[in-house]
Structures are given as structure tokens and as C-alpha cells.
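ok so I'm stuck.
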Amino acid sequence: MVLLAVDFENLHQILRNLYTDMMPLCSNMSGVAKGLAGLGALFYIANKVWQSLSRAEPIDVYPLLRPFVIGLCIMFFPTFVLGTINSVMSPVVKGCNRMLETQTFDMNHYRQQKDKLEYEAMMKSPETAYLVSNEEFDRQLDELGWSPADLITMSGMYVERGMYSLKKSIRDWFRELLEIIFASASLVIDTVRTFFLIVLAILGPIAFAISVYDGFQSTLTAWISKYISVYLWLPVSDLFSSVLARLQVLMLQNDISELQNNPNFSIDASNTVYIIFMIIGIVGYFTIPTVAGWIIQAGGMSGYSRNLMLMVNKTGAVSGGAAGAVTGNIAGRLINGNGGGGGSSYGSHPSYGDSNPKGRNYAYASASGSSRGASSGYSPNSPPYH
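replied:
not stuck anymore, here's the structure
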């Protein structure tokens, strides 16, 4: 079952191409920036020279070189400024992305192994084999006759198989919904990051030109710190995804060990933990700008961080409420099934080895069989790097 056929990797690739295509626009702003920087250099040099002459002091030439260096940066901004910063930061991005790819590969391997063990565990017991295998279901139906007791047993098997399929479909639907929200959170971070980088890159020459004027020298360092901080959103996002992937690997290893050694292991508990960590991952993605700000200080983004945290709170509330509703519904069915297991029965079936003509209790079979539903992991989408 696929909720929405979206190739998030392709969307991240589009954002990377967008950043590359927008870089030539920096040259369009260089003309305006050179005019501003030239006027600022004239005022700056005149002010410094006039101060030295008025005080009868020798003129210090070294500070007067600053406007000329900034002018050279403006003239070759895409290559000299953006190219240098991107080249220095690119190894960091590639290293974090390789870590994510390694963890994702391990997670996919363990997930396939766990799915196989779950299917084998369900097939070992005749009470649950017919729930996951069409051949076993048909075989058990063929062994039944047409007596009233057998017809009741047959009806019970159809009901229990339908309930198991419905429960599994609801669980898979909710898991895929959380995975789409998780991937969308990654896409939101990458989209906002690309937008910020494009704006900073296009208007960077203007920021450099303004920094020539007295009183605005901090504009240069502020621009550099903000650009690097936003650029680090991608490696921080990859690190966060690597942590989540490693956590999933550890969970899958524990589930595989339990499936191999513990015949009473409940897969429903593992599914609940998986849902909880998906919600944590969704909320955690929106803390990436804050973590990137710890690496290099960049002010001026408090309003965005505040709006982002409001979005986090709303997303967490909606996801948590939905998770509670689904978990409570499944738990209620299990409790009701166990509580009413002694009062009704559907007839006998030779596969269960029951000689009682009243047969076995299929309500109890639903509770014990459905608690071994299948589960699968997820693959966090990593945005590609520039």
C-alpha cells in the first residue's frame, strides 16, 4: 500500500539544481555592489586621510587597503567567495552523507531479515499461519466439511482473517503517513535552506559593499557566519538521520534476537516503539537550525526559529494524537478479545487437534494471532548535498 508516490530524492535533486542555476544571478548584483563599494571606498579613504592630516599624523596605508580587497571580492564573488566557502564546507557535507548511507544500508539489511523471521514465526503455528498465507488458509478450508459446526468454524476463520488484514492495513497506513511526514520535514528543511542560501548568495555582493562604510563593518562577518550556519543545516540533518537510522538498526537487531529466542515475543510492542521514534524524528528535524547555530554563531534568525518551533509543537500534537488513537484502538480490541474469549466458540477443526465438538474460541485466536502482525522499518530520506 502506497499513500503517495513521491520521489523525495528527486525533489532534493531539484533543489540542488535550483541552487546551481541561481548562482549566475550574483553577477547581476555585482554592478550595483561595485558602485556602492566604490562610493563607500571614496568616503572611507577620504575620512581616514582627513583624520590623519588634521592630527598631523603620518597616514597609515594598511587600513586603506580594506575597501580594495572587498572590491576584489565583489568583482569575483561567485568564484572567489562562494566557491571558496563551498569548497571548504563540501568535505564536511560529503562525510556526513557517507555516514548516513552506511547506516541506511545496514538498516535495510536487518529489516529484510526481520520481515522474514516474522513470516516464519507466523507460519510455525497453525493458529496464525492461515492469517498470512493464502495456501495455508485454503488448505485448512479444504479440511473442513459442511456440517453446521464446520460452517461456523469456516465463518470464524473468514472473520479473523478479515480482522487481521484490516488491522495490518490500518497499521501500515499510519506508518506510511508518519514516514511521509518525516520525509516532508526533511524536504521543508532542505527547501528553506536552499532559499536562504540563494538569497544570501544573490545579495551577498550588496552586503559586502555596505560593509565598506564606517559603522557597517560587522555586516561582512555577519553575512559569512549566516551563510556557513545555513550551509551546515545539511550535514547536521544527515547526522540526525544517521542517529535515527542507527537507532533503528539497534531496534531491529533486538527484535531479530527476540524472534529467534523468545517464542512469546509481541511484535505489536515493537511497532508502538517504532511509531514513537518516528514522531521524535519528525519533531527533531525542526531543531536542526538551532543545532547548526551552536556550531557557528549567526544572529538575526530568532523569528524564524520561533515560527519553526510553533510548527514543531503543532506537528507533534497532531502526530501524537493520531498515534494515541491508533494504539488505543488496537489495545482495546486486544483487551475485549481476551475478556470475551470464554463465552463463544466456532466449532472444531482438525488442524488444531481439538476433539471438542464445540470447537475452539476464535476470539482468542484473533487476540493471540493478531498480536504477531508484520512490521517493517523505514528509510530516512537524506537530502543530497551541493
